[in-house]
Amino acid sequence: MKQIIIILTASILLPACKSKQPETLKSVLQDKFLIGTALNLEQIYQRDTLANSVILEHFSSIVPENCMKSMFLQPKEGEFFFDDADKYVEYGEKHNLWIVGHCLVWHSQTPDWFFVDSTGKEVTRQVLLSRIKNHITTVVSRYKGRVNGWDVVNEAILEDGSWRQSPLYRIIGESFIDSAFVWANRADTNAELYYNDYNMADCGKRNEVVKLVKHLKDNNIRIDAVGMQAHVHLDYPSISEFEKSIEAFAAAGVKVMITELDMSILPRAKYNVGADISTDFEYQKELNPYVDGVPAEKDSIWTSRFLDFFDLFLKHSNTITRVTTWGVGDADSWLNNWPIPGRTDYPLLFDRNYMPKPCIDSIIGKI
Ligand code: 9MR
After folding, report:
1. How far away, in angstroms, is 277 Cα from ligand 1 center?
2. How far apart are CA 228 and CA 350, in angstroms?
3. 112 to each of 115, 141, 165, 278, 323, how far by Cα in Å?
4. Helix, strand or coil for residue 101?
5. pLDDT in tens, 200-216
6. CA distance 206 to 308
7. Does the pLDDT value for residue 5 go beyond 70?
8. Hey, which of 67, 200, 260 would you mutate to test ligand 1's pocket, going by the most ligand atoms within 8 Å of its Cβ?
9. Which one of 50, 112, 342, 364 is separated from 246 by 20 to 30 angstroms, measured CA to CA?
10. Domains (ranges, CATH) in the chain?
11. Whose CA is nearest to atom 4 of ligand 1?
12. Percent of the chain, pLDDT > 90?
């Protein structure tokens, strides 16, 4: 009898005593969209416990910042290196995260041998197509059923709507995109397939990407989403132009993902350089003004604009299925070294000590 009373008392009291779990980005956003982050090797190998706990607390999706790019996966023809990518996928599976593969076909970070023969001469269309097919088939098949979605083609179209004159385009023509999506689909019919690009709020690029999506769909080639990288600035792009692109991609019949979100706080060397890593400028002190910290006023401008973007994403949460930031803490960001090396930027949601910025509380408070 005494035992029954104790059990009954405990079951009545326990729920009331149980402390409420603190809310995190991933907990509040779970019914809206996935919230993701890019991981570097330090994070994939869990060398920093603080970064690791932030990732697991706040994020529901991951993407590898570099280790799945073709120059790392296939440094020599037919010789694949999968150690880091395997570790990345294991990490995601272990923690039940939505795993993105980035990226299968890109003009950049492609190994030197990819576009040339043994004499250094550009390869033929047939050879290049067979190299792309082999790369995609090998990589996607290895992670079949494990990677949830792939950036199949990255950055093929320019801001004015013309096609990037990369070796992919010059040697094969526009159809390299069709082939890449067909081969990725054959290798894993369940993984989602994405076209991913930066400066997607620009009208020329927006229209051409819509055309591309329609072209793929008209030809029964599967594409599931368009990735808007969102390397944004304090003065570019306008929220309204960004919104037009979300709406245009959704109207073309695909989901939208915000795939590489960061917002630089630094003055720009030149208006609108996009995210093309081949662009760089010389270091100048006045272009690196916040080495010792950001003045409060500037910080609040950053926070308020970041929140404006978040409001937009929440407004379109029926269309947007994932928002991924390009890195965890400010020190991890590529923007510290691009387009000018050696600067101190503050573009992400966590500071250099992986402490949450005020923006996170505001996002949590909104939902
Ligand atoms: O953040 C990545 C950086 O560490 C690499 O040096 C760079 C080289 O290509 O790529 C960066 O990530 C890019 C991404 O893969 C594609 N979109 C633009 C990103 C920023 O350049």
Report:
1. 7
2. 21
3. 7, 24, 17, 15, 32
4. strand
5. 999 999 999 999 999 99
6. 21
7. no
8. 260
9. 364
10. 31-366 (3.20.20.80)
11. 334
12. 88
DSSP H helices in 59-202? 70-73, 83-94, 125-142, 167-172, 175-187
User: Whose C-alpha lies nearest to ligand 1, atom 17?
Assistant: 275
Total residue length of the chain = 367
273 in ligand 1 pocket by Cβ < 6 Å? no
* Per-residue tokens: 1: 């009898």
Amino acid, res. 110: T
Sign of the CA dihedral with 184 first, then 214, 240, and 311 last: negative
Contacts of 246 (CB under 8 A, 6+ apart): 228, 256, 312, 316, 319, 320
pTM: 0.93
Q: Is 197 in the pocket of ligand 1 (CB under 6 A)?
A: no
Q: Is 116 exposed, middle or buried (0-12, 13-18, 19+ CB in 10 A)?
A: middle
